[in-house]
Amino acid sequence: MPVSSISSASPASTTRSQSQNLGQADFIRLMTTQMKMQDPTDPVDNKEMIAQMAQFSSLSGIENINSTLKAISAQLDRVLSTQAATPTATPE
Questions:
Q1: Domain that holds residue 78
Q2: Which of the listed residues 7, 25, 44, 64 has the most CB atoms within 10 Å of its CB?
Q3: CA proximity to 1, closest of 59, 28, 41, 56
Q4: Residue 65: inside a domain, yes or no?
């Protein structure tokens, strides 16, 4: 389905640098805009909609995994820095 330009796009989203990744909010905004702008006589195919919802679900899961891994990494960094700062006893 061809998509025309969106006149209600916010300046922040149009000036986003190409190196930044799209987030969950961007995905929802794109999907809802697509649904608003679709031709009622020729709606999006159900298979395409299911595929988009699966992508959204995958994105959400990946973001959760990423935040969990960052938290684990931060905890490991704290443990390692604590162990490095603690003097070890030398056997006599």
A1: 48-84
A2: 44
A3: 41
A4: yes
